[in-house]
Amino acid sequence: MIENFSIPTRYLQCVLAALAVAGCSEPATGAQGESSASGRTASSSGAVDSPVTNSGEIERRIAALYDDPFANDPLDPALPLTPDFNRLLAAERVAVQRNDGAPRAIESNWLVAGQDAEIADLAVTARPGELGEMIATATFRNFGEPQTVLYLWKLRTGEWRLDDIYVGGDEQSVAETLTAAHPDL
Question: What's the pTM?
């Protein structure tokens, strides 16, 4: 019998993060006519009807958004959100609804990296990032031009929640843009 045996907290965190990633699947792809998870909806609170617990589910949820990119409100995406990211998007929704003539912080749809879309060659992959993070990458062609959108997910109470989006790879963070536009948050 081993007495006073303890496992370092950092080791346990790594094991738990690895277990959360264990549900990996093949990269998800989206195209017209393929099945999608569009039946899952989110509210403005960022709540989604079923939890995201693995990278395969992250890939499927993101790919489903591209089935009809303009059916999704970029300020209220059908994805589970961290409280901080939800608060930023909510502040921008309020500013847009106020319609006081001030420019929007986000001028284009981050989902398609533009204002119009003709999506082709979509591929979505998710990989572990830092401890408790998952990075999903959507690559596609929009009107023939290659595009990349990165989705940063964080593990919160056993489920993955979207925490930030980088349009054009890592060039423009949606959270940083909204934080600059709404410094009072």
Answer: 0.71
